[in-house]
Design a protein that fits this description.
One of its GO terms (cellular component) is eukaryotic translation initiation factor 2B complex. The protein is an alpha/beta fold. It has helices at about 5-15, 20-35, 40-55, 60-75, 80-85, 90-105, 110-115, 135-145, 160-170, 185-190, 215-225, 250-255, 255-260, 295-304; strands at about 125-130, 150-155, 175-180, 195, 200, 210, 230, 270-275, 280-285, 290. The longest helix is centred in the first third of the chain and has 20 residues, at about 90-105.
Length: about 300
Amino acid sequence: MNVFDISEYFLGQIKNDKSPAIAAMMALMESMRRDKSTTLQEFIEKMKLEREKLSKVDVSVVSVSSGSELFMRFITLAHQELEQAADFASCREILLRRGEKFVKNMQESRKKILRSSTNLIKDGMIILTHSHSRNVLAVMTEAVKQGRQFSVFVTESQPDNSGRCMAKALEAVGVPCTVILDAAVGYIMERVNAVMLGAEGVCENGGIINKIGSCNVATLAHMKNKPVYVLVESYKFIRRIPLDNSSLPKSYLHKASVLNHGSDLELEHPQVDYTHPDNLTLLYTDLGVLPTSAVTEHLIKLYT
């Protein structure tokens, strides 16, 4: 019998084009199905170890951390129901049932974002986007299906050129698209009507953590009085308020392999940066269209 490796399962889901957060939830679900714990406390400790393993995989840990934390929060929230279970076998059935329900609901998030952003893209718009975002791509694809005529500038998004992948995906669905240098954002900004970004995490104050360069894009847009719209799932809301980019955890900024290698981090490119909520206009989420100030209230409801 093969030993279950949650990291391998997680990477397999990523290859199947699942977002890191959803892949993490699915990996935790599979681990739960195979778990042999005999008490609730043993189970919780086991899941804690499984979450730690996920944090050491070479993907951006921001959404993985928020998604898995919210998943565990949801399945163990019904304390009274768990306490009334006759034995741990019954308790385990409750946990599995709640877990499956949660993952199913979270997989519907992008469809809800599409509904909340139905009228976001209008005919004749020129949009700037940064890097590759599944949500931005989905919203633009839906706008094409609705017959909207618009064009997009995409930053190439160094160091991994993820913007070029985004451009190919947009061109494949019929969106006129131009890849620009990251350094050309200021030059292009005066020509665009709006900026659309995804996010790997949304902080408690409404600021976002996203692909390196997002802060530059949003700050320049704010200076030029251009709206910045963020398309993001609520399971990426995190209980953290960075003071600035230097206060982001190293685990957010660098891949696990870089941290484990013991490299001089001053010489390494960070993966993400932090954008202050003052530079963002609205969040288009599965909860609806939210001002950045609404994130705090939502997190309070989730964790109290």
